[in-house]
Design brief:
4-stranded antiparallel β-sheet; alpha+beta; elongated
Amino acid sequence: MNDKQLKCEKAEEKKTTTENSAPGLNDNIEFMGRQLHVQTEKTGFPAPRIVTQVFSNGRVVFSRKSDIPECQGSQEFTKIQDLMRTQHFQTIQEMVDKQKRILGSR
């Protein structure tokens, strides 16, 4: 294998790794007068899972973890992105609903 083939192979390997990495999701919301940051990402250690964390002043105040079901083929990336979006926005919706319940009971 010559240098040119090796460079092409490494570039293809890097491209595949990047394409298979789902970007994280980040949102800022207000909850009971406080700014919270909601972050969802895919982790791979010790097992592949989706992790959503809610931060207040840099501290984790809530965390949700879900195992990623085994997907194969070209739909894996899309499936993982869909699962991440669902978990991320479900967490935000739960925060909004909880705030409504709390404020409604006053």
